[in-house]
Structure formats: structure tokens, C-alpha cells
TrEMBL record:
Belongs to the NAD(P)-dependent epimerase/dehydratase family. dTDP-glucose dehydratase subfamily. GO terms for molecular function: dTDP-glucose 4,6-dehydratase activity. This is dTDP-glucose 4,6-dehydratase. Its EC number is 4.2.1.46. The lineage of its organism: Bacteria, Bacillati, Bacillota, Clostridia, Eubacteriales. Keywords: Lyase, NAD. It comes from the Bacteria. InterPro entries: dTDP_Gluc_deHydtase, NAD(P)-bd_dom. Its cofactor is NAD(+). It comes from Clostridium simiarum. Residues 5-320 form the NAD(P)-binding domain. The gene is rfbB. The keyword RNA-binding does not apply. It holds the Pfam family GDP_Man_Dehyd. It catalyses: dTDP-alpha-D-glucose = dTDP-4-dehydro-6-deoxy-alpha-D-glucose + H2O.
Length: 353
């Protein structure tokens, strides 16, 4: 039975990953370590609250003693590091916490994994540290071209700079110590359980409440959208089959301007939910500082080496996503009313340490 340390598994992608893995494999054990910041939500994990192969631990990846205790207790085969401060706008206002969690937290995990996995002249068999990174480390594209794994790193925001720093530390542990690692860099994810500070859930929520939709700048910035389950599938593949020390880009030629995303969601809700939801809700607002213009991933490496491809086309994924938010209005209400963490505080009872 393989044992995973999944960090940040109460957040958006982490919780989708935990649910995906526990559905797919009956013979794995996941220790889910999450600090439960504003972005962590135990309600995302309700489906696995009685699953014996899932153990939730409330804690910080910067806490060396705690991580050492967990390694001692569970002898992890894999670490999958999702835990991060993840929102660019927050990083512009409050960069310190991004440096702390995203850089220091990652180094702390690397150090403890190294202590536990390194032997006198090599590494214990079958171990791997997977760092979940982002395409934002490559900076911004012009109208043409795509990010490949060899595109020079050129981050602009405090968020992407902290993720780049973490990537470089992970790479350094491979280059210096031959620690078994992989790094995945994916594009913008969308799907269930995304915190409504990010464009798509914010947009859906504002439409349903007839609130203005803030579109930054001219609305023509481009993002390459990936359905979250396709990302989870990619991570599972890289853990099992990724060549040690390699970086894999994850994305799927699914580029859209922000304004096109906004209009697609409005159009669906207008036709299917409420004809009062119209483009009148769109409000162009001041641009994000240092706003990257375009992201676009070239996924050739992961396709050719591991056979991964994004199965969900955007037209299908966005409808699935909108329907999920329509069917889970309580999930959103618990967040917007501010009591989501209290609401589910006792869900895991004694399992929270
Ligand atoms: P999220 O903000 O929804 O979740 C982050 C989770 O990490 C939360 O549950 C939070 O409580 C936890 N956390 C924060 N600080 C912690 C700490 N110090 N110790 C332990 N837990 C902590 O983020 P997300 O969108 O799910 O992103 C997950 C990862 O994927 C991040 O590393 C992010 O950089 C990366 N990523 C995200 C996207 C995207 O589109 N969302 C795209 C590319 C890469
Ligand atoms: O209200 C908004 N209006 C708007 O125009 C918000 C929240 C965003 N935007 C724009 C900014 C971006 O161009 O929409 C685009 C998407 O914004 P976000 O959802 O904040 O995502 P982004 O900044 O692209 O970063 C996301 O993808 C890469 C994740 O938050 C990162 O964690 C990930 O690394």
C-alpha cells in the first residue's frame, strides 16, 4: 500500500486530487496536511469523511517538527505538494506570506523528505517528491508561441516569483543530491470547489446574485483553461511514471480571453437559469498591476512520454462546472457568509490533530 503525503488537500485542486485518487485506488493511503487558511475548506472533503484511507491533519508545511513526526509515523512513499498561497491579487497586497508558505514551506518539506528518504549512498526505492507548480513561472507570452519546459523562467508577480523560487529549490535538491523529484507546471484550472476569488467561480457567483462582474483592463488577457480532473490525472501519471528530475507542463491548447469566458458564462446562465443575467453586469475595472498578458502551454512532452491529454473540452467542462455551482449553492453560501470553516470544523472530529 503506497502512502501519500498530500499537502493543501483541503484547497481547490488538492481536494479534487484526494477525491480522484481515493475513487481510483482502493489500496492507497492519503495523509492530507492542510493549514486551513481562508482557502482551505473541509466541506470539499465531505465525500471521504468516512474513508479509512484518508487521514486529515490540520497543520502547516513550515512546521518542521510536525512534518518530521508525520514522516516517522507514516513512512511516506510520495509527497505531493499543493499547499500554497495561490491568488495573484493577494500576493500583490501581501507578498510575505507567499514567500513563507510557498518558498520556506517547500524547503522544509524537501529537507524532511531528504532526511527520511536518503540512504548512505543513494535513496530508498520508489520515493518521489512532486512539486505542483504553475505556468506563471514562465512569465507572459505575446500573441504567438507556447511555454515549453525549456522556456526561460521569468515570473512577474510576487505569487509567481515565490512559485519559481520553490521550483528552483526543488530542482536544486535533484541537481545537488539526486533527490527523486518531479515538477509539474499547469495552466489555469477550473471546476468544482474553486474558491470564489478566482475568475470563474467569482463570475458565476456574481451573476447568480446580480452583482457586477469586474473585468480587469481590456478583458483581452488570455489564459489556457484546464479542467481540474484532467490536471489530477496528469499528476497521478507523473507520480507513477514521470522520469526523475523532469519538469512536465500540463495544459491543453484551450486558450480564451477573459472577456470570452465572462460572456460564455453569462450566456449559459441567461438561457438556462435567469434571463435577468445579462452582459450589463460586466464592469471594466482598473487593470491588475503587472498583469501577464497571455499564458499558453505546449503539452507535447507529457503527451509523448506519458500519454496524457486533456479529455475534457472547454465547452463541456464549463457547463459541468456551472452546473456544479448551481447544484451546490450551499457550498458557496457557507463561504460567502464567512462561516464555512466553523460549519465543518467538527466534521472530522478526533481525526484533526
Ligand atoms: P488553493 O488556494 O485553493 O488551496 C491551497 C491550499 O493550501 C488551501 O487548502 C490552504 O489551506 C493550504 N495551505 C496554504 N498555506 C498552507 C501551509 N502553510 N501549510 C499547509 N497548508 C497550507 O489553491 P489551488 O488553486 O488548489 O492550488 C493548488 C496548487 O496548485 C498551488 O500550489 C498552486 O500554486 C498550484 N496551481 C494552481 C493553479 C490554479 O489554476 N488554481 C494553476 C497552476 C498551479
Ligand atoms: O475579478 C477578476 N477579474 C478578472 O478580470 C479576477 C479574479 C480575475 N480577472 C482576470 C485576471 C486573469 O487574467 O482573469 C484572469 C484569471 O484570473 P485568476 O482567476 O485570478 O487566475 P490567474 O491570475 O490567471 O492565476 C491562476 O492560474 C495560475 C491561479 O490563481 C494560480 O494559482 C495559478 O498558478
Amino acid at each position: 500500500m503506497k502512502t501519500y503525503l498530500v499537502t493543501g488537500g483541503a484547497g481547490f485542486i488538492g481536494s479534487n486530487f484526494v477525491l480522484y485518487m481515493l475513487k481510483k485506488y482502493q489500496d492507497i493511503r492519503i495523509i492530507n496536511l492542510d493549514k486551513l487558511t481562508y482557502a482551505g475548506n473541509l466541506e470539499n472533503l465531505e465525500e471521504v469523511k468516512h474513508n479509512k484511507n484518508h487521514i486529515f491533519v490540520n497543520g502547516d508545511i513550515c512546521d518542521k517538527e510536525l512534518i518530521e513526526d508525520l514522516f516517522q509515523k507514516y513512512d511516506f512513499d510520495y509527497v505531493v505538494n499543493f499547499a500554497a498561497e495561490s491568488h495573484v491579487d493577494r500576493s500583490i497586497k501581501e507578498p510575505e506570506i507567499f514567500a513563507k508558505t510557498n518558498i520556506i514551506g517547500t524547503v522544509n518539506l524537501l529537507n524532511v523528505a531528504k532526511e527520511s528518504w536518503e540512504t548512505q549512498d543513494s535513496w530508498k526505492e520508489g520515493k518521489k517528491f512532486l512539486q505542483v507548480s504553475t505556468d506563471e513561472v514562465y512569465g507572459s507570452l505575446g500573441d504567438t508561441g507556447f511555454f515549453t519546459e525549456t522556456t526561460p523562467l521569468d515570473p512577474h508577480s510576487p505569487y509567481s516569483s515565490s512559485k519559481t523560487s520553490a521550483d528552483l529549490m526543488v530542482k536544486a535538491y535533484y541537481d545537488t543530491f539526486k533527490m527523486p523529484i518531479n515538477i509539474t507546471r499547469c495552466s489555469n484550472n477550473y471546476g468544482p470547489f474553486q474558491f470564489p476569488e478566482k475568475l470563474i467561480p467569482l463570475l458565476i457567483n456574481n451573476c447568480l446574485n446580480h452583482k457586477d462582474i469586474p473585468v480587469y483592463g481590456d478583458g483581452l488577457n488570455v489564459r489556457d483553461w484546464l479542467y481540474v480532473e484532467d490536471h489530477c490525472k496528469a499528476i497521478d501519471m507523473v507520480i507513477r511514471e514521470g522520469r526523475l528530475g523532469e519538469v512536465y507542463n500540463v495544459g491543453g491548447h484551450n486558450e480564451r480571453t477573459n472577456i470570452a469566458i465572462v460572456k460564455t458564462v453569462i450566456d449559459y446562465l441567461n438561457k438556462n437559469v435567469d434571463s435577468a443575467i445579462t452582459e450589463d453586469l460586466i464592469k471594466y475595472v482598473e487593470d491588475r498591476k503587472g498583469h501577464d498578458r497571455r499564458y499558453g502551454i505546449d503539452p507535447t512532452k507529457i503527451k509523448e512520454e506519458l500519454g496524457w491529454y486533456p479529455e475534457t473540452v472547454f465547452e463541456e467542462g464549463i457547463v459541468k462546472t456551472i452546473k456544479w455551482y448551481l447544484d451546490n449553492k450551499e457550498w458557496m453560501e457557507h463561504i460567502t457568509s464567512g462561516d464555512y470553516q466553523n460549519y465543518y470544523k467538527n466534521m472530522y472530529g478526533h481525526e484533526i490533530s
